[in-house]
């Protein structure tokens, strides 16, 4: 093939314009913004809404369909916004409702969708509902899960049972004023709402409607598996959970097996109701589909139920965390193939797959898989069928930032100890975004930022990556473009594993096929791609690949003898 033809054909790939009748969110590319760390507009060292608004053009420029924002509601910040004291107000350090209105307006002007983080499982203990519940003021008396506790043989009062909090220790906390324990599946300052009380269900639906009225495009829903606990018995008691002998420390969350406090069947019904609310809202008020993305670290089967039960619809995007929970630096190509297949095979018909690489609760992708695999993982998420979800900074290959025990502020780390905090701490993945090489990487003009900016920011930031001929961001930009091609939008996927290399073909009938090669081995491999996919051309063209590859974009390679370099990902096209 002549070079000029290759250039022309690549140009058509890169500038392919999607003209599809599909609903807007299908195959969408979604970004997670962590408001505290994205951009600080007022110099207090904390990111804010005006900062986000200022940087929305960047979000658009990296090919996103929309972004979900971690909570920006009023909060004492015991769990950095996941402890909400008023669902209807914006946290002052993040801005005002007017600032949010402007953010939304700007996003919509740019063609970006915005999703808010809906935290239904718990409120802050400073929420008015909880304060009134303590005082047994109606209708709030039973808004939370209260219990007298047990009196042991020594006459001492003990928590009702052995349930453990996700943040360690008992999930029950004594309240002196009400003279009862309350349940908190997360921190002590995050009392669990009681979803067996219809008033709570209704009050939380009002929250959704309020923000839909403000014009948001949907919600990311937090911590679903924890929503319901087993119903109390006739005496109002809750059973102990079985002990996990592999986790001997009784303070640890893993000490008990969560058969009564997680994944209760009522949870699914709740999600179907929220979906109904969003669908009804569209019917009544018009506009585009408002969507739900749901957070549940649970079994595959449960996540499939979050999509719907065949009769009722649920979440459009039940977050697929399998790349986070099942894969790591030691995973083989077969492990990767299993993760891909297990979701695609189990997924009900007429729903869309999704792939989440990381978020504010997990270590950075580059730190989990090794910095040399940054592009490989981005290639994976961007070229699999369905929706991709990217946590801010993964497009730059940001790595975890070391935070000492003394400097740790994540409650999950602080509830641990100097020897173990690191495995719990979520601070390292939450540090400020790296924009450029000026003070605080352009994130803030403050002398101190809420978490430190990475030391090496002058060598790794958006500005530099855009200037460099090759960078993680440039690879990402290639990916979001080629993703628009019908072979990625509509095409099938055929997955093969050869010699610890994951290879797959994406092809839409009548369109040119793409071959993705991800070498998960430490050794380079000579592959005969043609023997895997007999109908592909003799020569393939490199569309994009990992920054460290010797192959350049537009290089022509032999399909029967392709050298897959170690840890490198490549997207090839067969003309
Ligand atoms: C979710 C959030 C996490 C938070 C927890 C409790 O898992 O992603 O950050 O700590 O819920 O709200
Ligand atoms: Mg600020």
Describe what this molecule looks like in 3D.
There is one protein chain. Helix content is 28%, strand content 17%. The protein has 575 residues and is α/β, with parallel strands linked by helices. It has 3 domains: 26-120 and 198-476, Alpha-Beta Barrel (TIM Barrel); 128-183, Oligo-1,6-glucosidase, Domain 2 (Oligo-1,6-glucosidase, domain 2), CATH 3.90.400.10; 490-574, Golgi alpha-mannosidase II (Immunoglobulin-like). The strands form 6 sheets. It has an 8-stranded parallel sheet with strand order 13-12-11-5-2-1-15-14. A 6-stranded antiparallel sheet has the order 16-17-18-23-20-21. α3 runs parallel beside α4, α6 (198-213) runs parallel beside α7 and α12 packs parallel to α16. Alpha-D-glucopyranose is lined by residues 79, 82, 119, 186, 222-223, 295, 360-361.
Q: What descriptors fit this protein?
A:
575 residues; alpha/beta; TIM Barrel; Oligo-1,6-glucosidase, domain 2; Immunoglobulin-like; eight-stranded parallel sheet; six-stranded antiparallel sheet; globular; binds alpha-D-glucopyranose; binds magnesium ion
């Amino acid at each position: 093939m002549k070079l000029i033809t290759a250039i022309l054909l690549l140009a058509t790939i890169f500038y392919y314009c999607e003209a599809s009748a599909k609903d807007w969110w299908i195959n969408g590319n979604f970004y997670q913004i962590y408001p505290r760390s994205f951009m600080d507009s007022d110099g207090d060292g904390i990111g804010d809404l005006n900062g986000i608004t200022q940087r929305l053009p960047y979000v658009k420029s990296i090919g996103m369909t929309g972004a979900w924002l971690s909570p920006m509601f009023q909060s004492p910040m015991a769990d950095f916004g996941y402890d909400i004291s008023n669902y209807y107000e914006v946290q002052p350090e993040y801005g005002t409702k007017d600032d949010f209105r402007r953010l939304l307006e700007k996003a919509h002007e740019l063609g970006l969708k915005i999703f808010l983080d809906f935290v239904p499982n718990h409120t802050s203990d400073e929420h008015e509902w909880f304060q009134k519940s303590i005082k047994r003021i109606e209708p709030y008396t039973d808004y939370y899960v209260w219990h007298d506790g047990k009196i042991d043989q020594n006459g001492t009062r003990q928590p009702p049972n052995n349930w453990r909090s996700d943040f360690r220790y008992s999930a029950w906390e004594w309240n002196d004023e009400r003279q009862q324990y309350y349940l908190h599946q997360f921190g002590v300052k995050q009392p669990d709402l009681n979803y067996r009380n219809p008033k709570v269900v209704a009050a939380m639906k009002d929250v959704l409607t309020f923000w839909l009225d403000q014009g948001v495009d949907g919600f990311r829903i937090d911590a679903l598996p924890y929503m319901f606990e087993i119903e109390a018995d006739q005496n109002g008691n809750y059973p102990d959970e079985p002990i996990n002998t592999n986790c001997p420390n009784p303070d640890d969350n893993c000490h008990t097996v969560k058969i009564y406090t997680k994944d209760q069947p009522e949870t699914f019904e709740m999600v179907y109701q929220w979906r109904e609310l969003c669908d009804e809202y569209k019917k009544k008020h018009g506009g585009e589909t408002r969507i739900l993305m749901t957070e549940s670290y649970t079994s595959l089967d449960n996540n499939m139920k979050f999509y719907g039960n065949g009769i009722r619809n649920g979440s459009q995007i039940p977050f697929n965390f399998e790349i986070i929970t099942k894969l790591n630096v030691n995973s083989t190509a077969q492990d990767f193939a299993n993760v891909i297949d297990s979701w695609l095979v189990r997924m009900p018909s007429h729903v869309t797959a999704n792939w989440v690489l990381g978020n504010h609760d997990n270590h950075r992708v580059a730190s989990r898989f090794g910095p040399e695999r940054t592009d490989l993982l981005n290639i994976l998420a961007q070229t699999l069928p369905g929706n991709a979800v990217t946590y801010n900074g993964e497009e730059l290959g940001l790595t975890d930032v070391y935070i000492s025990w003394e400097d740790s502020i994540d409650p999950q780390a602080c509830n641990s100890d100097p020897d173990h905090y690191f495995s719990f701490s979520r601070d390292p993945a939450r540090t400020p975004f790296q924009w450029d090489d000026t003070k605080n990487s352009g994130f803030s003009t403050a002398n101190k930022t809420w978490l430190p900016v990475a030391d090496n920011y002058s060598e790794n930031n958006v500005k530099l990556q855009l200037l460099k001929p090759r960078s993680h961001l440039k690879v990402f930009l290639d990916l979001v473009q080629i993703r628009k091609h019908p072979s990625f939008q509509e095409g099938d996927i055929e997955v093969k594993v050869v010699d610890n290399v994951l290879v797959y073909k994406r092809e839409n009938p009548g369109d040119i096929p793409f071959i993705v090669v991800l070498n998960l081995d430490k050794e380079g491999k000579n592959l005969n791609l043609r023997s895997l996919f007999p109908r592909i051309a003799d020569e393939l063209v490199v569309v994009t690949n990992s920054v460290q590859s010797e192959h350049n974009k537009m290089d022509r390679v032999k399909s029967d003898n392709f050298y897959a370099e170690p840890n490198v990902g490549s997207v090839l096209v067969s003309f």
